Amino acid sequence: MVSASSTTPRADRSRRRFALAVLAVFALALGLRLAFWSQLRGGALDEWHRYDQSDMATYLAQADQFASGDWLASEPVHPYHGWQTVAPPEKWLAWYGPHVFHQAPGYAYLLAFARSLSDEPLVLVKAVQLALGACTAVFALLLGAELFGLAVGVIAGVLVASYGPLYYLEAQLLREGPALCALLALAWALARELRIERGDVGRWLACGLLGVAIGLFHVLHEMGTVVLVVAAVVLGLHHLRAELRAERRAERRAELRAELRAGGAAALRALAALLLGYVVGFAPLLGRNLAVGAPPFSVSCRTLINFAQANEANAAEGGATFIAPGPAVVKLLDDADGSFVKLLGGVWATYDGDVAKLVGNWWLRWSAVWKRFEEPDNTSFYFYREYSALLASSPTFALLFPLGIAGLVVAAWGAWATRRASRGGGANVALANPRGVLAACALLLAVAGALSFVHTVARFRLYVTPAFFVGAGFALVSTWSALRARRFGAVGAIVGLASLAALFQGAITRETERDRFRPVDWYVAASVSQALGQHERALAFADDSAKRYTGDVNLYLVLGPTFEAAKRWGEARACYERALAALPQSPDARRGLARVQAAVGGAK
């Protein structure tokens, strides 16, 4: 008989180590986020939601509609941005369809709720998002520990804590931070469910609760559909508990049929619980849709439009890069009349039977999911990195991808080897949760597959990173363990996999003018600075733009009249003089300088 005292101290030490690891990762993640936010506070980079061409402005406009008392929003907000001028607003509204939200409304509801809690709701929202970002790091730790052990979990958590493309977005009024936190939590819950043995009631209750969580996530993000499908397939196979083997013996056929029937019944019960839970979680949006006459399970009206833009035969870069839609997209959307089936037929017709071009365009979009650069959308990672030393030193996808691929390949092989070992084979890689590893890989491939049918910008790509965080952690821990054991062949294999992944990433990376810096970033920063009364800062952004885009005087010519209207003659003169220095023949700059000189002379 083993006494409790012989096992409790070890268990207590393990729990203390785990708790300390969680606290340390949370503190590191929160500290980095607060430090970064402190670099932005009070300036244009913290007020990017003032840019009226951004999703941030749309979220705020939708939140304003909710906060005004129109919580059902039977006529939701739909922006009309500069890139939409290919068709008039009424045409876009016809494509969007009646009563359907522009994007999943969960984030706008949260913004509206924050207005009722604080006099500074946007500050509150950002503070909560940064705290959720620290929770994202903790969920990465939990997922890594669930799949591979605590050491891998800690590294995964540290990677999330320091991952620049994530925490710079968490300081903006965008849903990506909260959505990634929810996605990692769901991935951890799914992996944990594949390991834990439960009784019948507990099993169905766990599936139902997971479904509720996925339903709530779907209200926040359209990716909920992908997560639901992956969870249904993974849980269905898990509860089926039947393996078909080629070498069946005739006398076992009756037994196998009985096992299949029992496993099938268990799988159906699990799926029913999952789907019922999903409907419960999705119920708030479902009720709203029914109340206003929208399609019951509609979340966003952008799906058809994004698909048409990215998949028509002559889309730029095969649809991998976002550009304003042209006449071909207009025709596709008109002909589809809101039907996705009709749209598929229309898209196929644009290829005129050219299957090679269809596959080639898809390959360009698929490749764009994995490229090195952080393609900007709403905000630009590289622009923010110019003004934050902390962000400049943070890891990016260029590091995460090779390490993650190496770790995931080794882990997937280990999961397969572990299953073979359970049937009498041998396994050299021990995993805490082999089925969870395969589920994480399935989620990665499903999300990447969904992204390959739209133009993938950096903030969309965040949703493939959960598996890469834990995969990178596993690669590093496996390398260290192999070095300590002097298994240099294993070290070489991991390093070789990472090197091949890096070479592949370099080969598929196709840099476009949107990949790094955009002139609009400096325009927005200068305009917002001007609106905040930070005139010298506005001029500094104009100077930075002129240095990067030699001879570009447009920003000076935009700021000059603004300074004139404010009777800030010194700053106005500086704008026009700098414009003339870059482009001496500019008539607008000459006229502006003459106006300033006349105004100053008249004032004297």
Summarize the structure.
The protein is built from 27 helices and no strands. It has helices at residues 4-40, 55-67, 89-96, 106-115, 121-148, 150-162, 164-170, 176-195, 200-220, 224-240, 253-292, 302-311, 327-336, 340-350, 355-369, 381-386, 389-392, 397-421, 434-451, 458-461, 465-484, 488-508, 519-531, 535-548, 554-565, 569-582, 587-603.
Q: Helix fraction?
A: over 70%
- Terminal Cα separation, in Å? 101 Å
Largest sheet: none
Secondary-structure element order, as H and E? HHHHHHHHHHHHHHHHHHHHHHHHHHH
Q: Low-confidence parts lasting 5 or more residues at pLDDT below 50?
A: 1-6, 242-251, 423-429
The best one-word shape is: globular
Question: Helix/strand-derived class?
Answer: mainly alpha
SSE map:
Elements: H1 4-40, H2 55-67, H3 89-96, H4 106-115, H5 121-148, H6 150-162, H7 164-170, H8 176-195, H9 200-220, H10 224-240, H11 253-292, H12 302-311, H13 327-336, H14 340-350, H15 355-369, H16 381-386, H17 389-392, H18 397-421, H19 434-451, H20 458-461, H21 465-484, H22 488-508, H23 519-531, H24 535-548, H25 554-565, H26 569-582, H27 587-603
